[in-house]
């Protein structure tokens, strides 16, 4: 090494301190990290300053332990654990493991292994709802980042998921990202330093709203400045759909990104196949253009194998017992019928007749646009009246009071807009939950004065039905009053904002009337009229209550994780799209749900023919498919077409609502409904085959298990983290108190107050955790700060440390003295595509005899002895210090053996890398030890 070009991994002295040299991606900067491994104190030296003698750099060595600061056996174990848990750049084949704050399940490593096979990474992760696609994508990003294969990445997602992504990346992967959407972009732009900087290129880690970036101007800017890796969440909203202009914008954005042949691209969706074959193929085409031309029903073996390299699609049954058992909740689907009150039945019947009249009367005299307008109006009116009296009032009141000229056809509503207000499309970026007023106005050409009088009568009747006379609402009361005492926390899903607000108010009134008002119960509504920040504030308030009821529209039904706080779902309004049903229930039925069973209630009108049609034709079949196949299979037709098939049949076959027979519709062999059923059955069979073909069974569990075990040994398992935290806090006079399913941390030590605060908290070391209990993993701030503090104090202020570099333990576990060295090795891992990487590991190496003729134990034997040794007697302190002095003074005699061990460890690390690379098909790596090894600690196990 020369002063101005030190090799990564070597030790240098600068600014009166010893440092480890780190790799640098800037030739003009020498990056340095303290010997303790504290990455918060990494600094850089500008090379020209060395040339001008304004900075100095010289070789140094790792300081040996001082026997004057000898402590007991627990203090020695604490140092070993601190050193192990402080490692961030582990030597194992998975670089990311040292920086994770989550323990991934083995099956979640499969997409990572697939990604490492690809250059560039082009992967569609289509695992079932709740399996953990965010974690799988985060592992890939973290691994590529730690391998220095990427420096920047972006997540494109619906705006309501931006904050969730930011939190997940920070908490689980230690990646700080900025959120860019309409509400944050201006502030971020103002914070850019002066000069030629761009928002999309300045920040390394981005989370960007698809709504924000899809416009023409921003799209061009992002395409110019995009990072090396892009994740597209809810990728099914970016398929090519000629009938949806906003979908086209999103598809064009991702397609143009994919045109960059060097871009790493991850597409995430639980519903890749929306039922439309061309849309699915367009999604595959984003991964590789040739996939768009594949005949998916008749793939050749070579096509299937090629596609399987880029597509993974697994059910829960595929991963539940993959190496370890993963607990998913049992989903219990229940139907809860209700009957309309006489007053509500009268309103529904007259509204149904009115709507049917819009569709059937004088249709030959109307243009096609007018006919479609009437049809949309009819559906919108029926649906809002079915939803709640409040929805009926919000939708019809404005129209009823208008005095519109007959025959005005200039304002023709876009079909996509009409669908978003009336149906439940799931391939749009955001659910529309506003009242369908604009859709009702589509039929204004036919609204005569008598029509408006009738609409005003509908509004009057609906106003009288609010609260009293609403048996659907009464049925909801019964369900909630049954759920709450059983410990269930329900989400009530509504179609419209007005219904959600109505329910929130009515429920609050109902539960406040009780003789003993429950102060632990809170009822809050969240709808699309609130901003993302307002939704988060309301949700944060709600989850502080032991008993809670969330009333929500579908603005929360896609992608948002609610399983930590809720365990029951009530569909107050039946979704008219089976995909929406799964999205709603998937908010709670996912990994991390601590309840063994989640309950899902379908609330429907027994004497409401539209509810009956939706239930029989769509919902019950979807529920049965999920029970038998374990996944949701979309209807293989456009969702609007399916709904139209149902409701056009209703309008065609019934003179009035009371005379409707749904069985009559389904028995008619010529109806569109029969084709829906047949097509759906074919889709179920197709999906069954696809799940088998793309479940990635080519990657065997045993190939992954060995590396996971090695990682736990090198970096520390959950059990070792728990032992370390308990022992360290005990030594800091802040002992944990054991509770039934957790630990209580009553007093926060001073070193933890800056990161944890001073409030007591309940913690656990296993995941998932019960609500209100914090999971403590390897990289949690509590563990990270404890390990860093204890290691730094042992190295720099041993007189004040609770962890010891020297120890002397009298034990009956040995017959001859055993001398244990705590070693830390550094290695340069050289690979073809990137600059060398620095890796580190710690291990115990023991010997008997004198240093010049040491008889070495294996690391496994040494670790077993060191961990199992228990003090049975003691020696005078002076004698212990004298013995340690003699050994430490002769450590130089061990140099040849220690160098040999370093080379053997390097070879073992190389073999571990090659085992993984035999799966990932990557090239070989060369592992070089950086000598000498650090001797962190010296401990003597002395026979009694």
TrEMBL record:
GO function terms (MF aspect): ATP binding; helicase activity; hydrolase activity
UniProt keyword Oxidoreductase present: no
Keywords: ATP-binding, Helicase, Hydrolase, Nucleotide-binding, Plasmid
One Pfam entry name: SNF2-rel_dom
Keyword hit for Nucleotide-binding: yes
Gene3D superfamilies in the record: P-loop containing nucleotide triphosphate hydrolases, Tandem AAA-ATPase domain
SUPFAM superfamilies membership: P-loop containing nucleoside triphosphate hydrolases
Name this polypeptide is given: DEAD/DEAH box helicase
Native source species: Euhalothece natronophila Z-M001
Lineage: Bacteria, Bacillati, Cyanobacteriota, Cyanophyceae, Oscillatoriophycideae
């Amino acid at each position: 090494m020369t002063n101005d070009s030190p090799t990564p991994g070597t030790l240098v002295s600068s600014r009166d301190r010893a440092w480890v040299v780190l790799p640098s991606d800037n030739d003009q900067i020498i990056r340095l990290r303290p010997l303790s491994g504290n990455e918060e104190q990494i600094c850089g030296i500008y090379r020209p300053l060395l040339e001008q003698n304004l900075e100095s750099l010289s070789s140094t060595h790792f300081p040996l332990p001082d026997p004057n600061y000898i402590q007991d056996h627990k203090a020695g174990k604490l140092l070993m654990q601190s050193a192990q848990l402080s490692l961030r750049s582990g030597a194992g084949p998975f670089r990311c493991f040292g920086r994770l704050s989550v323990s991934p399940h083995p099956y979640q490593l499969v997409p990572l292994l697939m990604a490492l096979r690809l250059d560039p990474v082009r992967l569609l992760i289509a695992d079932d709802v709740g399996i953990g696609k965010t974690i799988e994508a985060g592992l890939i990003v973290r691994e590529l980042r730690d391998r220095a294969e990427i420096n920047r990445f972006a997540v494109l997602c619906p705006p309501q998921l931006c904050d969730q992504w930011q939190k997940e990346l920070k908490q689980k992967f230690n990646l700080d990202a900025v959120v860019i959407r309409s509400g944050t972009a201006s502030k971020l732009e103002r914070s850019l330093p002066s000069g030629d900087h761009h928002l999309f290129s300045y920040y390394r880690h981005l989370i960007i709203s698809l709504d924000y970036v899809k416009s023409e101007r921003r799209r061009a800017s992002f395409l110019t400045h995009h990072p090396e890796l892009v994740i597209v969440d809810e990728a099914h909203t970016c398929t090519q759909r000629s009938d949806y202009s906003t979908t086209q914008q999103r598809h064009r954005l991702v397609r143009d990104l994919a045109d960059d042949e060097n871009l790493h691209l991850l597409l995430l969706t639980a519903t890749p196949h929306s039922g439309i074959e061309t849309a699915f193929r367009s999604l595959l085409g984003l991964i590789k253009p040739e996939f768009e031309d594949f005949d998916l029903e008749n793939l050749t073996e070579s096509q299937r194998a090629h596609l399987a390299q880029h597509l993974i699609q697994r059910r829960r049954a595929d991963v539940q017992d993959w190496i370890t058992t993963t607990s998913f909740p049992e989903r219990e689907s229940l139907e809860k019928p209700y009957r309309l009150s006489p007053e509500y039945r009268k309103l529904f019947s007259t509204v149904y007749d009115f709507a049917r009249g819009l569709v059937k009367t004088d249709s030959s005299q109307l243009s096609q646009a007018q006919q479609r307008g009437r049809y949309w109006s009819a559906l919108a009116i029926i649906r809002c009246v079915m939803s709640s009296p409040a929805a009926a009032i919000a939708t019809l009141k404005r129209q009823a009071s208008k005095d519109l000229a007959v025959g005005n056809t200039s304002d023709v509503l876009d079909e996509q807009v009409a669908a978003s207000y009336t149906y439940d499309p799931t391939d749009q970026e955001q659910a529309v939950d506003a009242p369908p007023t604009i859709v009702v106005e589509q039929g204004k050409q036919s609204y005569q004065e008598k029509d408006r009088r009738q609409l005003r009568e509908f509004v009057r009747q609906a106003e009288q039905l609010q609260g009293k006379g609403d048996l659907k609402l009464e049925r909801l009361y019964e369900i909630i009053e049954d759920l709450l005492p059983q410990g269930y926390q329900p989400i009530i899903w509504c179609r419209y904002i007005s219904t959600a607000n109505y329910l929130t108010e009515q429920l609050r009134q109902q539960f406040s009337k009780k003789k003993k008002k429950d102060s632990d119960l809170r009822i809050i509504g969240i709808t699309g009229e609130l901003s993302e920040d307002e939704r988060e504030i309301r949700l944060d308030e709600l989850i502080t209550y032991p008993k809670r009821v969330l009333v929500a529209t579908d603005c929360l039904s896609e992608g948002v994780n609610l399983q930590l706080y809720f365990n029951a779902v009530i569909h107050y309004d039946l979704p008219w799209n089976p995909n929406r049903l799964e999205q709603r229930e998937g908010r709670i039925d996912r990994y991390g749900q601590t309840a063994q069973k989640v309950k899902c209630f379908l609330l429907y009108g027994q004497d409401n023919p539209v509810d009956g049609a939706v239930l029989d034709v769509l919902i019950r079949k979807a529920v049965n498919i999920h029970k038998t196949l374990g996944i949701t299979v979309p209807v293989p037709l456009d969702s609007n077409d399916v709904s139209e098939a149902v409701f056009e049949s209703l309008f065609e076959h019934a003179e009035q609502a009371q005379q409707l027979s749904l069985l009559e519709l389904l028995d008619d062999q010529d109806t569109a409904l029969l084709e829906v059923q047949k097509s759906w059955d074919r889709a179920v069979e197709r999906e069954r085959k696809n799940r088998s073909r793309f479940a990635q069974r080519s990657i065997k569990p045993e190939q992954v298990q060995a590396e996971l075990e090695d990682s736990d040994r090198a970096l520390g398992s959950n059990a070792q983290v728990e032992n370390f935290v308990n022992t360290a806090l005990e030594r800091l006079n802040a002992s944990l108190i054991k509770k039934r399913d957790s630990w209580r941390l009553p007093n926060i030590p001073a070193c933890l107050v800056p990161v944890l605060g001073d409030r007591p908290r309940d913690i656990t070391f296993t995941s998932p955790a019960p609500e209100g209990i914090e999971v403590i993993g390897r990289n949690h701030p509590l563990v990270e700060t404890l390990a860093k503090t204890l290691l730094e104090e042992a190295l720099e202020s041993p007189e004040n440390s609770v962890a010891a570099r020297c120890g002397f333990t009298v034990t009956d576990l040995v017959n001859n003295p055993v001398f244990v060295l705590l070693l830390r090795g550094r290695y340069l891992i050289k690979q073809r595509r990137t600059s060398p990487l620095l890796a580190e590991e710690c291990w115990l190496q023991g010997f008997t005899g004198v240093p010049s003729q040491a008889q070495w134990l294996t690391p496994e034997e040494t670790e077993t002895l060191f961990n199992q040794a228990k003090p049975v007697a003691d020696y005078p302190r002076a004698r212990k210090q004298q013995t340690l002095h003699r050994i430490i003074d002769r450590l130089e005699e061990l140099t040849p053996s220690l160098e040999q061990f370093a080379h053997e460890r390097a070879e073992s690390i190389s073999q571990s890398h090659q085992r993984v690379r035999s799966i990932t098909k990557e090239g070989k790596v060369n592992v070089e030890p950086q000598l000498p090894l650090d001797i962190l600690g010296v401990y003597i196990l002395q026979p009694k």
